């Protein structure tokens, strides 16, 4: 089940289109296929396993899915606001399917949702969020999201001045580098004490 989840989510990120001209109506086809396969697997396993053993098979699946969706964001070639909403639709579809399988709510996919919601904050908002609430993700995860934000609908790879072919791209690269520098400072700072 876990390998199946990783396989389909990896394909959804590598081959999916997240730089859309308009909002997608449906989740990524690989997410739909994963949901169908998980439901079928649960149905077959429920026929031969007691409920406690079935719960073991699916335990931690949402946490694994969230990790895969965040860590494998590096494979997304292009990303924009409509792609961000498509990713939110993917995550919602996965959450609903896991609920239909009658798994106890692990909340694992909430981390993936929070990660992709960072896009809507913009680069300054991401840095402000980290300063106010502390870091929830790794440096590379935040750098990737800053690259998405700074590049807009352009190539999602981190912009670099050596590749700049126009003043706009050079400006985006400079902004990205300034944001990454601030990000490094924030992540090197002592952690924020927990609020009571």
Key words describing this protein structure:
196 residues; 65% helix; mainly alpha; 9 helices
- The run of helices and strands is HHHHHHHHH
Low-confidence stretches: 153-164
How does the overall form come out from the CA principal axes?
A: globular
- Estimate the helix proportion, in percent: 55-70%
- Work out the radius of gyration: 19 Å
Total DSSP helices = 9
Structural class, from helix and strand content? mainly alpha
The total count of strands amounts to 0
What is the end-to-end distance?
39 Å
Mean pLDDT: 87
Largest sheet: none
Percent of sequence in beta strands: under 5%
Written description of the protein model:
The protein is an all-alpha fold and 196 residues long. It is 65% helix and 0% strand. About 6% of the residues have low confidence.
Quick structural summary:
The chain has 196 residues and is mainly alpha-helical. The chain is built from 9 helices and no strands.
Write the layout of secondary structure elements.
Elements: H1 2-15, H2 29-46, H3 51-58, H4 61-71, H5 81-100, H6 108-117, H7 122-133, H8 139-151, H9 167-188
């Amino acid at each position: 089940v876990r390998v199946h989840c990783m396989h389909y989510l990896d394909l959804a990120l590598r081959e999916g289109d997240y730089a859309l001209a308009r909002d997608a109506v449906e989740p990524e086809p690989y997410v739909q296929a994963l949901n169908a396969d998980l439901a079928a697997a649960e149905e077959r396993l429920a026929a031969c396993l007691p409920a406690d053993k079935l719960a073991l098979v699916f335990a931690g699946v949402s946490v694994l899915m969230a990790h895969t969706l965040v860590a494998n964001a590096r494979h997304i070639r292009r990303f924009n606001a409509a792609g961000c909403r498509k990713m939110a639709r993917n995550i919602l579809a996965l959450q609903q399917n896991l609920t239909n399988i009658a798994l106890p709510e692990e909340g694992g996919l909430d981390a993936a949702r929070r990660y992709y919601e960072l896009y809507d904050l913009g680069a300054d908002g991401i840095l402000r969020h980290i300063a106010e609430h502390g870091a929830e993700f790794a440096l590379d995860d935040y750098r990737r999201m800053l690259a998405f934000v700074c590049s807009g609908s352009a190539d999602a790879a981190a912009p670099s001045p050596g590749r700049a072919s126009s003043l706009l791209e050079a400006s985006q690269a400079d902004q990205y580098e300034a944001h990454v520098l601030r990000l490094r400072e924030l992540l090197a700072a002592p952690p924020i004490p927990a609020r009571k």
